[in-house]
Design goal:
Shape: flat
Number of strands: 10
Number of helices: 5
Largest sheet: 10 strands, antiparallel
Number of domains: 2
Order of helices and strands: EEEEEEEHHHHHEEE
Helix content: 10-25%
Structural class: alpha+beta
Strand content: over 45%
Strand order of the largest sheet: 1-10-9-8-7-6-5-4-3-2
């Protein structure tokens, strides 16, 4: 039995002014890049105050964050863990401890690299010191079709237009360069994970290198004006999200384990999602989505 049922459908047509984007490259030209990264962060604090054998304060905390992912069009997976532990001295002189954590993983894989049938799975585990045991949710699923986000390519085309207007480029970029630039843009999460607060510097350097290989820079690089324009496109200007393709996906959510033996498990829940998107050049986008759960 499914406890909740909701149906959501959305049809949109997004328009972009004809002067904004040129048509030397189309959404169909985009290839999703392979992106992978991981990070591990440890943290901790401790404070102590006392006199002789008397302890007044003994408080501490420890944290652990781990993330790892791999993303490509035919195959993607991720895993993450975020946990915090605390200890403190109470007024009656005893030491109390507590913790909480959230962990999860997911996978999506096409049965054949060039095929349309795929399977997916998600696992989520949560726990804290107030529960007898962790809570575990699992959602296996299957789907058919391919639905690709091509927003980075629209951003690459917009960056090219800005750089041409500012005289940073000698002329239009080749199609291959625009696709490669879009692939670097899509790898933003990889740069953030690997370089932290300095990711923008490394990210922009990678974009600059891609364009430099085309030989179209007037002075060998972005320069101050070009960097400002790239920043404007990626962080200030709104570029409508763009997708291409369609897919149908269904899954069943299972509550495999509850926080204690007295809490009953919820009934499995079925979900179904349909998506369709078709850009018409760079000027319009037909987008439809429906979801049932």
């Amino acid at each position: 039995m499914i406890n909740t049922r909701t149906v959501l459908a959305l049809l949109t047509v997004a328009l972009v002014a004809p002067s904004q984007l040129r048509a030397s490259v189309s959404p169909e030209d985009y290839d999703v890049p392979v992106s992978t990264a991981q990070q591990l962060r440890l943290g901790g604090t401790y404070s102590y105050a006392g006199s002789g054998s008397d302890t007044g304060t003994s408080d501490g905390s420890a944290s652990l964050l781990y993330q790892r992912y791999y993303n490509s069009l035919p195959y993607a997976w991720d895993m993450n863990f975020n946990g915090v532990g605390l200890t403190r001295r109470t007024a009656d002189g005893t030491q109390e401890g507590s913790y909480n954590f959230v962990a999860g993983s997911g996978i999506r894989k096409y049965f054949k690299t060039e095929g349309d049938l795929f399977y997916s799975g998600e696992l989520r585990v949560t726990g804290n010191s107030d529960s007898d045991r962790p809570t575990i949710d699992a959602t296996p699923g299957v789907g058919y079709g391919r639905f690709i986000r091509v927003t980075p390519l629209a951003q690459a085309v917009r960056i090219e237009e800005f750089l041409l207007n500012e005289g940073v480029l000698k002329g239009p970029l080749p199609k291959e360069t625009l696709v490669a630039l879009a692939q670097v843009i899509e790898r933003r999460g990889e740069f953030e994970t690997e370089f932290g607060d300095r990711y923008k510097v490394k990210w922009f350097e990678a974009m600059e290198q891609v364009i430099a290989e085309s030989g179209q820079f007037v002075h060998g690089g972005f320069g101050a004006v070009g960097s400002l324009r790239v920043d404007e496109v990626l962080f200030q200007e709104h570029v409508n999200e763009r997708f291409i393709g369609w897919d149908v996906r269904s899954g069943i959510r299972f509550e495999a384990l509850t926080k204690d033996a007295d809490t009953p498990r919820q009934d499995p829940g079925l979900s179904l999602r349909v998506r369709y998107s078709r850009p018409v050049g760079w000027m319009s986008l037909l987008d439809f989505g429906a979801q049932y759960s």
